[in-house]
Amino acid sequence: GQQVMQIPQYQHVQEGEDFTTYCNSSTTLSNIQWYKQRPGGHPVFLIQLVKSGEVKKQKRLTFQFGEAKKNSSLHITATQTTDVGTYFCAGPGNTGFQKLVFGTGTRLLVSP
Amino acid sequence: DVKVTQSSRYLVKRTGEKVFLECVQDMDHENMFWYRQDPGLGLRLIYFSYDVKMKEKGDIPEGYSVSREKKERFSLILESASTNQTSMYLCAARAAGMGYEQYFGPGTRLTVT
User: Fold this and answer.
1) Which of B8, B13, B16 is nearest to B91 (CA)?
2) Going by C-beta distance under 8 Å and a sequence separation of 6 or more, which residues neighbour residue B93?
3) A23/chain B closest Cα distance in angstroms
């Protein structure tokens, strides 16, 4: 079945260091979304990418969609303690676009 | 600014009990979802509904059923709770069509003893 994997599973950085999480789908995606879940919270939508090779920025966060639309990345420049949480990518299911298939998630811990 | 609410944040039930988890959304969205979240396993889809009285199984439907009698309400039912159903349960809602964001509820931490 369709799978969306993320690496790394977990990363611990010092405040000020950069961080990147990678998302890889077993199938081509029409779009990809990114969500952030703070500790004890629920996933919250960050952004959506639609075009092949698309790059979008939100302050210190840079999101990329691969040329083949099978992978994506989220890069955080100069992490802050407020970046702590788990980051999920998600794409439409190949058996019905109403469902999202979520990646396995990357948990980020930032030490001050 | 409340969008998706869940009936309980924490719930403790005994093995064999019938458990109801309720979810209500105020966005008039067609699609509603139930996930469970366990450490290291990410978000796994249990069931989803794309319209009133319509439902589809997700990836892990065994041991669960759902009910959607009204558009705004989607219930998850554990017919006979078991300890391996101890988990965080997240409800979500999303508009029909491509490319809409998904709104999650705050989650229910269910413990089955």
Assistant:
1) B8
2) B3, B4, B23, B25, B27, B29, B31, B32, B33, B74, B102, B103
3) 13
Which two structure tokens, joined as six digits, stand for A8?
């790394």
**Per-residue model confidence (pLDDT) at position A42:** 96
A-B contacts at Cβ under 8 angstroms: 50
CA dist., res. A60 & res. A75, Å (int): 8
How far, CA to CA in Å, does B52 sit from each of A74, B16, B31, B98, B106? 36, 29, 9, 20, 23
User: What pLDDT was estimated at residue A60?
Assistant: 98
Phi-psi region of B42 (alpha: psi -120 to 50; beta: other; left: phi over 0): left
Predicted pLDDT of residue B103:
95
What value does the mean pLDDT take over residues B23-34?
94
Average of pLDDT values for A4-33? Answer: 95
d(CA B112, CA A81): 34
- The first and second tokens of residue A29, run together, are 């995606």
Residue A105's DSSP bridge partners are: none
Phi and psi at residue A83, to the nearest 5°: -85, -10
Nearest C-alpha neighbor of A100 from the set B48, B25, B5, B74: B48
Provide the 3-class DSSP secondary structure of residue B20.
strand
Tell me the C-alpha distance between B84 and B28, whole Å.
33
Sort out which chain A residues have CB atoms less than 8 A from B107's CB and list them. Answer: 42
Distance from CA of B30 to the nearest CA of A (A): 10
Chain B nearest CA to A93, separation (Å): 11
Which one of A31, A42, A102 has the shortest CB-CB distance to B106? A42
